[in-house]
Amino acid sequence: VIAGDGEVGFHLAGMLSKEDHNITVVDPRRDLLALLETDTDVMTITGNPSSPSVLQSANIRSADLFISVVHEEHPNLLSCILAKRIGAKQTIARVNNVEYLTEENKLFFQTLGVDRLVSPERIAATEIYNLLAKTEASEAFSFDDGKLQLYQLRIEKGAEIIGYTLEKISKMYRKAEFRAIAITRNGVTFIPQAKDVFEEGDLAYVITLSSGVDELFRLGGKRQIDIHNLMVIGAGRIGRKTVNLLEDDTNIKIIEKDRKRAESVAGNFKRALVINGDATDIDLLNDEGLEHMDAFVATTNNSETNILTCLHAKRAGVKKTIALVDNVDYIAMSQSIGVDAIINKKLITASYIARFTISGVNITSSRILSGIDADVLEFVVSEFSEITKRPIYKLDLPEGTAIAGIIRDGEAYIALGHFLIQPNDHVVVFALPNTVKELTRFFQ
Q1: 374/367 Cα distance (integer angstroms)
Q2: Of 45, 18, 49, 17, which Cα lies nearest the Cα of 32?
């Protein structure tokens, strides 16, 4: 059962309905529910999800999982508490207040019936922070405190790797420290085989050990950019959290269109300068030193504004641009026209929640990639599961999946064909759409 008042809840419903879940969506707006019913195979209940009678009409007593992702956190918390008391097995609430996310407070909410808290804004700010730390990548994700890292990078013109096959790279680097697990070329994603050749403009998804990161980016024609000067557009939750993470070591200017918000947040920062102005005013950006910025991050509620201002920043010579884009359909287009990296709150929330919707396996982390329609999941291997019975090359894995890496007793390994997976290993797997359900049987 999903309680939502907009795009995040409806995106979750659409995504999960494709995976053979029985979904019920609760929302007070009948017109929006009617639109959802035309596009997805879900049940809908019109009403307030904080009402016990509405939850009972949604058959919450039989729910394996109740998810409340309304924009305001207090209704989410109340709905989860009620749902758990009525009979929901697990509950997840979306929150905005960072204070709630301390271990002490999370344990407190668990005693009330809120099993897990998710803050899309906090996750988004952390992703921006990570992308500015590794400017060579357009997506970045780490496992087990960075022992394994996943990057998306575009193969630049003149990159040494152009024309190389995976087979050639493996011979050049006998000690396996990184491996391409997927390539997107001309909008089509495939899992590369030994004879496949890298081409200019490819979007490569690469799993790497921490020791292989520098060599990986060198081969891809990438170089690290040191971020000293940063411009942030929008002082909403994501913009503010991003600045809080970065301002100790970075000179930051924040452009905020709303005067009241600009005045209210100005005192929240140690060093960052808040400027009241419209980011679509090119003269304003230029007057505030856009050409001297190392990075530019646009986090307003308007995707078009974020994309266009990033493109202008790129034109002005800014080396790294990151845009908050709420419309999933804009992601591939934004990257193809020059925005370096995209953040999407719907995918961020779905990434967190997806692993709790798969039964019979232990998934410690999951990631829905924004550049392509694919998942990366981290499984903990159970004793007697099928994945432990044969070396990787003898496993009849579903087409469109690839084992990327393994973490065993704190040591990380790139997955090679002869590797035999053992119980309690953490296994990172790449999966194209509609393969996750079949893939999970190997770990059950």
Answers
A1: 8
A2: 45
Task: Record the tokens describing residue 49, joined without a space.
Answer: 């999800």
Q: How many angstroms separate the CA atoms of 441 and 444, rounded?
A: 5
**pLDDT tens digits, 148-184:** 999 988 888 888 889 989 888 888 887 778 999 999 8
Angle 123-127-128 from CA coordinates, rounded to 5°:
120
At 278-298, the pLDDT tens digits run: 999 999 999 999 999 999 999
pLDDT at 371: 64
Structure tokens at 239: 């913009």
> Do strands 139-143 and 24-27 pair parallel, antiparallel, or not at all (unpaired)?
unpaired
Residue type present at position 150 = L
As a whole number of Å, the end-to-end CA separation of the chain is 25
- For the entire predicted model, the pTM comes to 0.85
CA distance 264 to 280: 22
CB atoms under 10 Å from CB of 405, counted, come to 28
Task: Give the model confidence (pLDDT) of 103-143 as tens digits.
Answer: 999 999 999 999 999 998 898 999 999 899 888 888 888 88
DSSP string, 289-309: TGGG-SEEEE-SS-HHHHHHH
Helical (H) or strand (E) element with 37 = helix 30-39
Supply the DSSP string of 184-242, one letter for each residue: EETTEEE---TT-B--TT-EEEEEEEGGGHHHHHHHTT-------EEEEE--SHHHHHH
168: which 2 tokens?
């050639």
User: In this predicted structure, what is the pLDDT of residue 111?
Assistant: 96
Q: Are 9 and 69 in contact (CB under 8 A)?
A: yes
Using alpha carbons, list the distances in angstroms from residue 271 to 258, 267, 411. 20, 10, 40
Structure confidence by residue, pLDDT tens digits, 176-200: 789 999 998 887 888 898 899 999 9
Beta-bridged to residue 256, according to DSSP, are: 276
Cα 256 to Cα 277: distance, rounded to the nearest angstrom:
6
